[in-house]
Design a protein that fits this description.
five-stranded antiparallel sheet, globular
Length: about 290
């Protein structure tokens, strides 16, 4: 990847495109555990909570939780990161990437320990550290070159492989597939092919026309990948080899334009909706209790 000029702080490690998603060790065939019925981990018919977000987050895009349970979000036009109280929906005033906030079409956020990342639709990856509300943080920008053939929309951190996952909303030329690229935090890792899911695998779930990701998460409980699609107003659940576990519609009463998805430390599912001329919203779905 080509490094861009930036206000980088010391100690940040460069990224290079990726390693494959390794399965967690198990006694299962091929060393992979069977993924639980992740699509039914949450009661998607009932909102445990929902919040109207302030105007500065009208164009909310990605969501991500830190390891200490803080929820972070950003809009899609300028490098400002906000903290949202996951219990009340209260939003702070945010911190900026650089004293003059960098501009871009930001489409995803991820947190890996103390390292924060934002990605643009053209594949420019920004790394930085958390800062106090109302202040700025130095950053480093890297061109992943994925934007040459992919419109990125969705970023997640996979702690099992120490990788960043980047979902393609659209491909050029169109290829009739979901494609998820992976970037290791260790720059010494090799670059295998991306995770590819043909649209045909969605046909049994009545999404034969395909899914166009707008957000991405790794479920910390099961390791499954969760894709939210604003255009189709749907959630897609993938195992760690890219097989479709389920694809389910989201209620139009609950969601106008779902852009971000994150799983909280207590298992709740959070989905952010862009305002689309109204208030942006944050919706919370509680996890279902396991069967006795």
């Amino acid at each position: 990847m080509r490094r861009l000029g930036s206000a980088a702080g010391r100690g940040m490690v460069a990224l290079s495109v990726i390693s494959s998603l390794a399965a967690a060790p198990s006694a299962g065939q091929g060393g992979e555990t069977a993924v639980p019925d992740v699509a039914h981990r949450w009661d998607l018919s009932h909102r445990a909570a929902h919040f109207d977000l302030p105007g500065r987050l009208q164009e909310i895009s990605g969501l991500a939780f830190s390891s200490d349970g803080q929820l972070f979000a950003h809009d899609d036009e300028v490098g400002v990161v906000y903290r949202i109280d996951p219990a009340s929906g209260k939003v702070d005033h945010g911190f900026t990437l650089g004293p003059r906030p960098v501009k871009g079409d930001f489409e995803g956020i991820a947190v890996a320990g103390s390292r924060f990342f934002l990605v643009t639709s053209r594949g420019f990856l920004y790394e930085f550290r958390e800062a106090a509300a109302g202040t700025s943080t130095p950053y480093r920008a890297t061109n992943t070159r994925l934007g040459n053939h992919c419109e990125i929309e969705g970023l997640a951190y996979d702690s099992r492989t120490e990788s960043l996952l980047l979902a393609c909303k659209t491909l050029a030329p169109p290829a009739g597939q979901i494609r998820i690229h992976r970037l290791p935090l260790d720059p010494a890792e090799a670059t295998p092919p991306p995770l590819v899911v043909p649209f045909s695998e969605l046909a049994p779930f009545r999404f034969g026309g395909g899914i166009h990701p707008s957000g991405l998460e790794v479920d910390p409980e099961t390791g499954a990948l969760i894709v939210v699609a604003a255009r189709e107003r749907a959630l897609v659940f993938l195992d760690r080899r890219g097989h479709v576990l389920a694809a389910v519609p989201l209620s139009s009463d609950h969601h106008r334009q779902p852009e971000g998805v994150a799983v909280g430390p207590h298992g709740s599912l959070y989905i952010s909706d862009e305002g689309a001329g109204h208030h942006a919203k944050l919706t919370v779905y509680a996890p279902l209790q396991p069967n006795p």
